[in-house]
Every structure is written in C-alpha cells, then in structure tokens.
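Translate structure to sequence.
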C-alpha cells in the first residue's frame, strides 16, 4: 500500500534564494538515492496566480508518495534528509525544540491517475 502525504514548511524571510536552491538539490538527491520514494515534488506558491485563500509568503509544499510507511521513515531518518536539515534547517521556521517546523498530513488515495511523470 502506498504512503502519500503533504508536508508544509516555511522559509524564513531573506532566505528564499538559498532555500530554493537547497530544496532543488534535496529533491535531486532523493530521486537519485531513495528508490522507495516514488514521488517527491517540492512547490512554492505562485503569487502571479490567484489562490484563495492567499498562501503565506515563504510556504513550501511537499507532495510525497512512498512505497510504504517504512520507506517514509527511511527517508526522514536517513542521511539525505538529516544532512539537509543539519545544513539548511536554519533557513526555515523552527519549532521550540530547534527542529524545522513542519505540518504533515498523511493521505489516503480514494481514486485518481497521472497521465505522465512530472
């Protein structure tokens, strides 16, 4: 059974360029070294288009699908993610325990399709 989720982070003001570059590299590393990660899409709001409600500035939305829950935990507990947070975590909003603050929503697919890989 697949393990899909959405996660949201917040880039701290003034760090947008550096954080965006780091997130691109993170996605590339996950693609190359984590075969159980089936989909790993990183998005930021497009303020040239109307979104209601207006998303917060600095928002990062991850759309992820893993082969299973174990694959997800291999990702978040693995060297790529841990090194990313250690190196770039200061670019993002942190919680009170000095960890990147993230909202995570685990999903259950009821139906759908993908016409092509993105």
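Result:
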């Amino acid at each position: 059974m697949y393990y899909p989720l959405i996660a949201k982070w917040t880039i701290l003001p003034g760090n947008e360029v550096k954080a965006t570059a780091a997130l691109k590299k993170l996605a590339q590393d996950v693609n190359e070294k984590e075969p159980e990660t089936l989909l790993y899409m990183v998005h930021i709001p497009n303020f040239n288009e109307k979104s209601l409600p207006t998303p917060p500035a600095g928002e990062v939305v991850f759309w992820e699908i893993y082969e299973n829950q174990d694959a997800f935990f291999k990702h978040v507990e693995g060297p790529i993610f841990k090194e990313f947070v250690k190196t770039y975590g200061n670019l993002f909003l942190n919680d009170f325990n000095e960890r990147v603050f993230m909202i995570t929503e685990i999903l259950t697919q009821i139906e759908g399709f993908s016409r092509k890989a993105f």
